Each structure stands twice: as structure tokens, then as C-alpha cells.
Amino acid sequence: MVRVTINEQICKGCGLCVRACPKKVLALSKTKLNSKGYHPAEVVDQEACIGCASCGRTCPDVAITIERD
């Protein structure tokens, strides 16, 4: 099992991780705002994640962690 975690306080909502994900596991939140006023990325389909880590490598703020069991 793979788990993607996003530090919402670091995320600036640039969307690079959303575009990098081949399985469309991530999306920018439409309802949440972080303390800086950005809509952070969020995991929308954890089960579909294949653990490729494209999102984490693409994130300029290093806000994404990928863990494998």
C-alpha cells in the first residue's frame, strides 16, 4: 500500500503535482485554504496511487511525502 501525504501549510497550490500524477490521485482543494490563503493540493483517490513519486519530485516546496508499507 502507498500513502501520499501533503503538508497543506507548505503547499502553495501551484498544481504541478496534479499535472504530474499519471493516475489523477491529486487535485487542488476547492474548499480548503491554508494559512497563506492558497488552495492546497489534496489526495482524492489514495487507492489509485501506484507510488511513482512523480508528485513528490515535481513539488517545488517539498510538501509531498510518499510512504510505502
What can you tell me about this protein's structure?
This protein has 69 residues and is an alpha+beta fold. It has a single domain, classed as Alpha-Beta Plaits (2-Layer Sandwich), CATH 3.30.70. Helices cover 14% and strands 23% of the residues. The protein is built from two helices and four strands, in the order E-H-E-E-H-E. The strands form two sheets. A two-stranded antiparallel ribbon has the order 1-4. Strands 2-3 form a two-stranded antiparallel sheet. The radius of gyration is 11 Å and the shape is globular. The relative contact order is 0.39. The mean pLDDT is 96.
Kindly report the CATH topology.
Alpha-Beta Plaits
Rg, please? 11 Å
Strand order of the largest sheet: 1-4
| CATH architecture classification name | 2-Layer Sandwich
Determine the mean pLDDT.
Answer: 96
Taking pLDDT < 50 over at least 5 consecutive residues as the criterion, the unreliable ranges are none
Compute the number of structural domains: 1
Beta percentage is 15-25%
Main sheet characteristics: 2 strands, antiparallel
The tally of beta strands, per DSSP, is 4
Estimate the global geometry from the Cα principal axes. globular
First-last Cα distance: 5 Å
Taken in chain order, the helices and strands follow as EHEEHE
Q: Helical stretch count?
A: 2
The top level CATH class name: Alpha Beta
Secondary structure: helix percent: 10-25%
Structural class by secondary-structure content: alpha+beta
